[in-house]
């Protein structure tokens, strides 16, 4: 049996799950050094007006190694689908099943300035941006090779986490990344990459050494600490879809360890005290420990804490005892279990089934009042607040060293609500109320990988003081807004 992170904390008596990577020397989790921002090159703009009409689809098809699917073609309804069924009504102009960087180049050259272009890896965009109406979808699913090369791994942009973890597990290596098996490595990395390895090894983007990317001019570039340095800075946390279409990533990896995973279920009515205690507890905990706290809305509100520890149960036990002591609440169930990295990631990943939901996020930078947060969840059945610890290696990197801004945060908060086509509007309003309430309680900011079209002042929320530099990078590499979308940096 395996369960996803969104569900395992809600299951009474669930076994502890999680995964982490082995210890490394201090600073190993930091990103390669990038020179300070320089005055960027003056963007060039096209002198000619945008071309009119759609691309010549027949001509484009002749240049592709993969297939091109148009509305009305067999399989189009399947080819266009993202992860969230709420966006099944989106109708792109075409879907190209890219198999090479050359396919991506041909698509960008043919469609630039004619219609929206969106790359799709896992298709998990929370706002449905990877399936744009009347746009061109570049399906990268066939570009999914995972090539482990010693302590490095080269990953195709269409690979999903299950592909990456399977290959790394066979090689005895690990990479800090997310927990959902069908999430694409590209979107995860480009937004930063929060996951169960975060406190020990940092974000996914902190392990990125280089990326191959097709920019708006159709050129295939390599962004790294040695080349296209401003672009490399932006790709580490600046959000997917903003600067071009990444075709492959090269990451640094670490040896895969054994870990201890844990789960504690607390009684109804304890969420206020547990959240207050959890914030101070996780801030003081060794970076070997990563934890997530789930507050499940309803009447009454339910609370569960889980996570993982790099090390054995003997070292973990006093840390869990400390949390219980701080909270003053006795868990109704408590479990801990040792397992290897590959088995843990497989167990932790859970189902790949599509899910209908509405979601958003906030960031906890300073401790918030647990009572105010619990009150927001009261009576909201079907809504979870998934609070993931940050700190540790994440905070070793300065907020301006990469585009990921929330380096000093305690935790991210994902507001996740199950929805249907029939109640979508009501659920969206409810999520908005929770998000606004979190901001009032002191949890501001947001995580771009939980992108929300209704989030107020979203550019500042996602990118903080890095927003201005990101906009300049977008103007330099995409002066005509080829990759522009509603919450794009260049919008």
UniProtKB/TrEMBL annotation:
Keyword Flavoprotein: yes
All copies of domain FAD-binding PCMH-type, residue ranges: 88-256
Annotated region (Disordered), positions in chain: 25-58
This protein's record includes keyword Cell membrane: no
Bias type Pro residues, positions: 33-54
Top-rank lineage group of the source organism: Bacteria
Listed cofactors: FAD
InterPro entries, sorted: BBE, FAD-bd_PCMH, FAD-bd_PCMH-like_sf, FAD-bd_PCMH_sub1, FAD-bd_PCMH_sub2, FAD-linked_Oxidoreductase, Oxid_FAD_bind_N, TAT_signal
Swiss-Prot/TrEMBL keywords: FAD, Flavoprotein, Oxidoreductase
Family: Belongs to the oxygen-dependent FAD-linked oxidoreductase family.
Protein name: FAD-binding oxidoreductase
């Amino acid at each position: 049996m395996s369960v996803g992170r969104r569900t395992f904390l809600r299951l009474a008596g669930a076994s502890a799950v999680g995964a982490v990577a082995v210890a490394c020397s201090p600073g190993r989790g930091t990103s390669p050094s990038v020179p300070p921002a320089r005055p960027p090159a003056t963007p060039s703009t096209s002198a000619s007006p945008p071309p009119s009409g759609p691309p010549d689809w027949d001509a484009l098809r002749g240049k592709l190694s993969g297939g091109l699917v148009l509305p009305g073609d067999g399989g189009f309804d399947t080819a266009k689908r993202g992860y969230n069924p709420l966006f099944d009504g989106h109708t792109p102009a075409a879907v190209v099943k890219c198999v090479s960087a050359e396919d991506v180049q041909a698509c960008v050259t043919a469609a630039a300035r004619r219609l929206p272009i969106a790359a799709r890896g896992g298709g998990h965009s929370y706002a449905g941006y990877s399936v744009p109406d009347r746009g061109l979808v570049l399906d990268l699913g066939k570009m999914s090779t995972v090539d482990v090369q010693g302590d490095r791994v080269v990953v195709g942009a269409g690979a999903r986490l299950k592909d990456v973890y399977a290959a790394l597990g066979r090689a005895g290596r690990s990479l800090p990344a997310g927990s959902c098996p069908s999430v694409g490595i590209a979107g995860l990395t480009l937004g930063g990459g929060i996951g169960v390895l975060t406190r020990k090894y940092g974000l996914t983007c902190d392990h990125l050494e280089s990326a191959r990317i097709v920019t708006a001019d159709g050129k295939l570039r390599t962004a790294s600490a040695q080349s296209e340095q401003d672009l490399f800075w932006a790709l580490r946390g600046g959000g997917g879809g903003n600067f071009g279409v990444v075709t492959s990533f090269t990451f640094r990896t670490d040896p895969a360890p054994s870990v201890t995973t844990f789960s504690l279920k607390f009684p109804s009515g304890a969420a206020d005290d547990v959240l207050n205690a959890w914030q101070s507890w996780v801030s003081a905990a060794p970076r070997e420990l990563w934890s997530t706290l789930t507050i499940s809305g309803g009447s009454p509100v339910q609370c569960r804490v889980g996570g993982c520890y790099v090390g054995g149960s003997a070292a973990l036990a006093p840390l869990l005892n400390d949390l219980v002591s701080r909270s003053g609440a006795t868990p109704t169930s408590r479990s801990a279990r040792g397992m290897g990295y590959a088995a843990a990631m497989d167990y932790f990943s859970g189902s790949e089934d599509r899910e209908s939901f509405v979601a958003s996020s906030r960031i906890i930078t300073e401790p918030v009042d647990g009572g105010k947060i619990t009150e927001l969840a009261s009576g909201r059945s079907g809504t979870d607040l998934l609070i993931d610890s940050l700190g540790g290696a994440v905070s070793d990197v300065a907020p301006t060293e990469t585009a990921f801004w929330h380096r000093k945060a305690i935790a991210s908060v994902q507001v996740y609500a199950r929805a249907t086509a029939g109640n979508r509007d009501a659920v969206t309003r409810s999520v908005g109320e929770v998000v606004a309430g979190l901001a009032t309680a002191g949890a501001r900011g947001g995580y771009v990988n939980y992108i929300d079209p209704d989030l107020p002042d979203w550019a500042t929320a996602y990118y903080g003081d890095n927003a201005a530099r990101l906009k300049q990078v977008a103007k330099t590499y995409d002066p005509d807004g080829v990759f522009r979308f509603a919450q794009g940096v260049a919008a």
